[in-house]
Design a protein that fits this description.
The protein is mainly beta. The chain is built from 5 helices and 33 strands. The protein is globular.
Length: about 475
């Protein structure tokens, strides 16, 4: 069963009125095996993100982001997820090298959790670093589902070593709210960090938040002069890439997607494509009241920002436009050629326009869309290079499940050592990444923009027997 047929069948059950979505938790099907280590509940939530602005969404445990989960690398964990929503759903443990059944993608064979039921996830978390968890359900034309909703949270896998010395840690998740269908006209481009080259139908948003509030609402980040603050930043938006700055400060990037970077660098501006994470140390040496937020004025007006307030400082939050600069992954990697792969896959991406009855374009990999596209076949232990050729005018944050890849080329620039699980491929650009087939089982590769994933931009990788 593919994503669309599953969603359709779920909708039919809802329409029949037989779904027990709103039964008390105690009446849901219990997961066997004793008390779990953690419990999550998918259910409706009312979120006050600003003065007079209330968002109705789905969340975990009635909060956005969901509960912070701190797990120990190599220590088995059980997590019970109860689905108190009106449709089937599941949870993806993004960035973990776990088995296909527990990974949380129905394309890999992970079970959907029917409304009113409880499912137990059992896995041994690895590797260490900043991971996250989120729904992996399809949305299609229903912009209340999938990653358009508030179903996301931080998942920190802790090892023996701290990543760096710091005095305070702050987790910041970016999300966009109240999506709607819009034409991708010039005015939309001006509001979006995605900056597509082509026109067409897309999704626009009315509001944006960092954690649960719009800029100027909620509590500020409170710091003291001389502190070293570890900021974990997550782009949990369904479709919007973002560019951020904190005037008077720089971000020393020490990890990307939870993995230490070979060459830590300080930058004034950082970019986060959908599903990317950045760990950065910020030296608090410029007292005042500042805005940490989007470099786009219209995005800040939507709410994309948070106030940073030094102890003893008062006044209106200050924003100053940073010096414009292009985001460059290569500065965090080693220069030079990576190890040779055993085999190379060339994957070309493009859209083929709308199909009858659809509001959105269909996406293809090598001219085929999910679920018609054949899987890639790999052998355990071998190193594979994937050449991503973006033949479209959109940016594509490409995510590989259950594995970490090494970024080996961007355009004409060879590089090595930068390990990620999401890479943003710019319009008409080519990016190469290598992964070792070291985690047998069905593995999903897809664009993490919900809009693209729902409309064909996925492919399975299968291990040969």
């Amino acid at each position: 069963m593919n994503r669309r047929s599953f969603l359709s069948s779920t909708g039919a059950v809802i329409a029949s009125g037989t779904l027990n979505a709103f039964l008390p938790t105690t009446m849901a099907a219990a997961a066997p095996g004793g008390k779990p280590d953690h419990v999550l509940r998918i259910g409706p939530c009312s979120l006050d993100i600003g003065k007079g602005v209330t968002i109705k969404t789905l969340s975990y445990n009635g909060q956005v982001p969901g509960p912070l989960l701190r797990l120990r690398e190599g220590v088995p964990v059980t997590i019970d997820v109860t689905n108190a929503s009106s449709g089937a759903d599941l949870v993806h443990w993004h960035g973990l090298a776990i088995d296909s059944l527990n990974d949380g993608a129905m394309e890999e064979g992970s079970p959907m959790i029917a409304a009113g039921e409880t499912h137990r996830y059992n896995f041994t978390p690895k590797p260490t670093g900043s991971r996250w968890y989120h729904t992996h359900a399809a949305a299609y034309d229903d912009l209340t589902l999938g990653t358009y909703s508030g179903q996301f949270g931080f998942l920190l896998i802790e090892g023996k070593q701290r990543p760096a010395h710091y005095d305070q840690e702050i987790n910041l998740a970016i999300h966009h709210w109240e999506p709607s269908f819009v034409p991708m006209v010039q005015t939309m481009r001006e509001q979006s960090s995605n900056m597509p080259l082509t026109a067409g139908s897309d999704v626009g948003y009315k509001y944006a938040t960092i954690n649960a509030h719009m800029l100027g609402e909620g509590e500020p980040i409170r710091v003291k002069k001389g502190q070293r603050v570890l900021m974990r930043l997550l782009n949990a938006s369904a479709t919007e890439n973002v560019v951020l700055s904190l005037p008077g400060h720089s971000f020393k990037i020490i990890a990307m997607d939870g993995n230490p970077v070979p060459t830590p660098r300080s930058v004034e501006v950082l970019s986060l494509a959908v599903a990317e994470r950045v760990d950065a140390i910020v030296e608090m040496n410029t007292p005042g009241v500042w805005v940490l937020g989007s470099t786009l004025e219209k995005a800040r007006e939507m709410g994309l920002g948070i106030v940073v307030e030094y102890a003893g400082q008062t006044g209106a939050p200050v924003w100053k436009d940073p010096t414009p600069q292009d985001w460059d992954y290569t500065q965090f990697a080693h220069a030079g050629e990576a190890s040779k792969p055993d085999e190379t896959f060339v994957l070309s991406f493009r859209d083929i326009g709308r199909r009858r009855g659809s509001k959105f374009d269909r996406w293809t990999i090598n001219n085929k869309s999910w679920p018609e596209i054949e899987p890639l076949t790999v052998q355990q232990g071998k190193r594979y290079r994937m050449v991503f050729r973006n033949g479209s005018g959109d940016q594509h944050p490409i995510h590989l499940h259950r594995h970490t890849f090494e970024v080996t080329r961007i355009g004409d620039n060879l590089m090595n050592g930068l390990m990620k699980d999401v890479i943003n491929v710019m319009p008409l650009d080519t990016v190469e990444v290598d992964f070792v087939a070291n985690n047998p089982g069905d593995t999903l590769l897809h664009c993490h923009q919900q809009l693209h994933m729902d409309y064909g931009f996925m492919q399975l990788i299968k291990y040969s027997t």
